[in-house]
Amino acid sequence: MTKRVVKLSVVRNQRKAAEAKSLRSDLFNSARRISSAMGDEFGGYAIVAWERNGDVYSSINNSYGPIRGRALPSFCRDAISAHVTLDIAKSPSELED
To answer: Is the pTM of this model over 0.85?
Structure first.
């Protein structure tokens, strides 16, 4: 019986690729779900994504609706804070980790 030796770097890269694929799928599904829920009232979006090393990418389109210019960062911060607060309220066990 021959034992196959697998390099840890190969396993790490395969895992990283699978995790990235899963994140991309989740991003696309979330975007479709949100835009579908908004229907013809869709007024704009802001996307922020980051790499594992912390490099940040963003994209915005605030062409329609009341959220413009300098209001956008505060609006996004408040929306994300509310989302995180709801997530924490739903699973208090995370606070114990």
So the answer is: no
